[in-house]
Write a structure and sequence with these properties.
about 350 residues; Rossmann fold; 2 domains
């Protein structure tokens, strides 16, 4: 990794061990990460412990899913020479800091996190009434504070989590920062992800079965696009449409060239083109994006050990940084691992 300088701010971000990534993951985060690694000192973490907050009942695929995430990261252009790429559970200090932060985090702070109630209401097939699920924002705070990140790239739905991290840092510094703040308060770096619909028009998600994976070969991409919903006003080929209300139009806005977008706008609104042709152009753009990634991924698929070695080297680098942080944390709390002779009061 390129040596850090004081001029570069530090970034921490991560993704859960969910297996192969889809276009929504790329547009929402990964594409931005690839650009950030040239400007920031970046730590990118496969947060496999976070995956356990909802998938604790069956952990058989967590390790494999972590590797699949890393393969897609490398295929998309994350560079281990520019960024630290590692697995959360391979840096045990995350668990220690999570424990210490949990001791000072009021229960009410966790219960008011917007995504807590939202996920409890939306995920009905799993029992989320666990301490781990309630406390996962504290583990997230530990991930961020461990590396004293200056900024955390997030979407709008995650801003509340960063604010909670700031509150936890502030509370820790208030209790233990006798010689100055132990943790900086990280800032949200808001990344406005464009609207990316799945093939059924809803938000793209593997759980909805509407996702286009970064690993989908060209025939699969084209077949998925053929089934994608379009502007409901276009019942017949001769009916004019509106790309602004069409999920395929949303794909064009993100991935197609300005020339193609102009043809879509004119052709759709005048019924000069049909949806089949429009979908074919969208598929062309996706294939052009995905093919180079899949070619880069092939090297690691043929020898997964290469990717695992990158993760292990990154985890070692992360452990070194984490060790320094935890030395400072324990020292601030008066719980240093070093022997300190007892203070003897000789006053008569």
């Amino acid at each position: 990794m390129t040596p850090s300088t004081n001029l570069r701010k530090r970034v921490l971000s991560g993704m859960r061990s969910t297996g192969k990534l889809h276009l929504g993951n790329y547009v929402g985060a990964l594409d931005n990460w690839v650009r950030m690694q040239d400007e920031y000192e970046c730590f990118f973490c496969v947060v496999d412990w976070h995956a356990l907050t909802t998938d604790y009942a069956d952990t058989s695929q967590v390790k494999r899913n972590s590797l699949e995430v890393a393969l897609d990261w490398l295929a998309a252009g994350l560079d281990p020479e520019k960024a630290v790429i590692f697995i959360q559970s391979h840096v045990p200090a995350h668990a220690e800091l999570h424990l210490l932060l949990s001791m000072i985090t009021p229960l009410g702070w966790l219960e008011r996190v917007p995504t807590y109630k939202e996920q409890r209401e939306n995920i009905k097939d799993k029992d989320l009434g666990t301490y781990g699920f309630l406390g996962y924002p504290v583990l997230q705070a530990a991930d961020i504070l461990m590396y004293k990140a200056d900024v955390v790239p997030v979407g709008e739905d995650q801003v509340a989590h960063i604010e909670l991290t700031r509150e936890i840092a502030r509370r820790f510094n208030g209790f233990y920062g006798k010689r100055g703040d132990v943790f900086p308060e990280p800032q949200s770096l808001l990344t406005r992800a464009p609207k990316l619909p799945g093939t059924d028009g809803r938000k793209m998600s593997k759980s909805y079965g509407n996702a286009i994976l970064l690993t989908d070969p060209e025939p699969v991409v084209r077949q998925k696009l053929k089934t994608m919903v379009t502007d409901p006003a276009r019942v017949r080929r001769s009916d004019p449409g509106n790309p602004d209300v069409c999920p395929v139009g949303d794909l064009h806005k993100i991935f197609s060239s300005s020339d193609t977008m102009e043809k879509v706008n004119v052709g759709c609104r005048s019924a000069g083109i049909g949806c089949i042709e429009c979908k074919s152009w969208a598929a062309d753009a996706l294939v052009q994006l995905l093919s180079p990634m899949q070619e880069r991924r092939k090297k690691f698929e043929e020898n997964p050990r290469l990717a695992w070695d990158i993760l292990e080297a990154g985890s070692e680098r992360a452990r070194q940084v984490a060790a320094k942080t935890m030395d400072g944390v324990r020292d601030a709390m008066g719980m240093s691992l070093a022997y300190e002779p007892p203070v003897v009061n000789d006053a008569k």
